[in-house]
Write a structure and sequence with these properties.
Elements (H helix, E strand, L loop, with lengths): L3 E8 L3 E4 H9 L6 H12 L5 E4 L40 E2 L4 E2 L4 H25 L11 E6 L8 H9 L6 E6 L6 H14 L4 E9 L10 H9 L2 E9 L1 H4 L6 E11 L7 E6 L2 E6 L3 H17 L3 H4 L8 E4 L4 H11 L3 H14 L6 H11 L7 E8 L3 E10 L1
Parallel strand pairs: 6-7, 6-8, 13-14
Antiparallel strand pairs: 1-9, 1-10, 2-3, 4-5, 8-9, 10-15, 11-12, 14-15
Length: 400
């Protein structure tokens, strides 16, 4: 049976954070020691990120005013600016404009911001993905799968999508929660399994992550690296079974195979915990080295069903949708698999323009590949990494 990823659509909040401005504000925080300040500058300067997006509107229109006047006007109504450091009245929740200090709200306060803003991003991404399939109507959706690791509320985003988009009340729903950066691939795997079992299935998969609601100030490496990488965004995909796949007219991705691998080391190197003042990321400096050591082994079960493909050099597989967990991770993947710069361009472009949006990020990379140059029959490999250390991968074929 056929499972076809028919469309991909992404959405980001309107507030833009420019990396150099965020760096300068964070480096000026009074709680940082000399080593912490050096780590901030090193992490931000080496991140490969130019700008990111956030739902925290307190950080709008400021950043020493460098972008607030005469700055870039971005598409889609995005506001320009960095972390706000001037002239707002009163004391904020995440940022005090009088002192320029980043504040430390409780986990409950942070989750309330997630609850307020997440549904709109879920809906925007989902509406775009459905609109890209003109032969499908909202009432055709049979299953809804939502993904997030940065907040919780109930009735959850799966319920809200049914209500806000007018989907059938009988649509079967599932939520993949708190899995981390790799979770969109298991969600696509579940969608493929549903469509292979039911040719009439139409599965809406939506991931939304609001990582910036968990920004904190600290001198430890994990806190600083997290502050330099993570951002907010959402991605949605429509996956259909054989009955609806024949109606596809544009480029699409046939979902061929999936694999999950736990590396033999790394359980303590990457983790995601709930603290009293937000979710706390553990992202050890050795993570890129673990990926470097074990990525070829992680690809073995993915490619094993196609021995001829497995025997070829990795660079002969045309497209690579690598989750851009950070620039050093992409560097290790490119070198270890001997890929070309062009094959890593979608991942590096996503990192540069959007940062690391946790599970949603790989959908941004796949969207660039789907909308970019290619031919019918091209192969696509998607990979994402997360706590455990877990490597999730998907093998696809471009159609159309």
């Amino acid at each position: 049976m056929l499972a076809l990823l028919r469309s991909l659509h992404t959405a980001v909040p309107s507030t833009v954070l420019y990396q150099d401005q965020v760096r300068d504000v964070l480096a000026a925080q009074p709680g940082l020691n000399r080593l912490g300040t050096r780590l901030v500058n090193a992490s931000f300067n080496a991140s490969g990120i130019e700008r990111r997006h956030t739902v925290v509107e307190e950080w709008r229109d400021g950043g020493r005013g460098a972008r607030a006047s005469g700055g870039e006007n971005t598409a889609g109504g995005e506001s320009t600016g960095g972390v706000n450091t001037a002239d707002d009245a009163g004391t904020g929740t995440f940022f005090d404009p009088e002192t320029g200090h980043i504040l430390n709200p409780s986990t409950g306060t942070r989750n309330a911001v997630f609850t307020e803003h997440a549904t709109d991003l879920y809906v925007e991404a989902a509406e775009g993905a459905l609109a890209a399939c003109p032969d499908l109507a909202p009432e055709d959706v049979t299953h809804v799968i939502t993904v997030s690791c940065t907040g919780f509320y109930s009735p959850g985003p799966d319920y809200q999508l049914v209500r806000r988009l007018g989907l059938p009340a009988t649509a079967k729903r599932a939520h993949f929660g708190f899995m981390g950066c790799y979770a969109a691939i298991p969600a696509l795997r579940e969608a493929a399994a549903i469509c292979e079992a039911d040719p009439a299935a139409v599965v809406l998969v939506v991931s939304a992550e609001l990582c910036t609601v968990h920004v904190r100030v600290g001198n430890d490496h994990d806190t600083i690296v997290g502050s330099s990488l993570f951002s907010d965004g959402a991605g949605a995909a429509v996956v259909t079974g054989a009955q609806h796949s024949e109606a596809s007219t544009g480029p699409a991705l046939q979902l061929d195979n999936f694999a999950t691998v736990l590396t033999p080391v790394g359980e303590e190197a990457m983790a995601w915990n709930i603290g009293d003042h937000g979710f706390e990321m553990i992202l050890g400096t050795y993570v890129p080295h673990i990926i470097d050591d074990h990525i070829t082994g992680a690809l073995e079960p993915l490619l094993a069903p196609e021995p001829e493909l497995a025997a070829r050099p990795y660079a002969e597989l045309e497209h690579w949708a690598i989750h851009p967990g950070g620039r050093s991770i992409l560097d290790k993947v490119e070198a270890r698999l001997e890929l070309t710069e062009a094959q890593l361009a979608p991942a590096r472009n996503t990192l540069r323009d959007y940062g690391n949006m946790s599970s949603a990020t790989v959908l941004f990379v796949l969207k660039q590949i789907l909308e970019g140059p290619g031919h019918d029959g091209d192969r696509v490999c998607a990979m994402a990494f997360g706590p455990g250390l877990t490597v999730e991968s998907a093998l696809m074929t471009r159609r159309g």
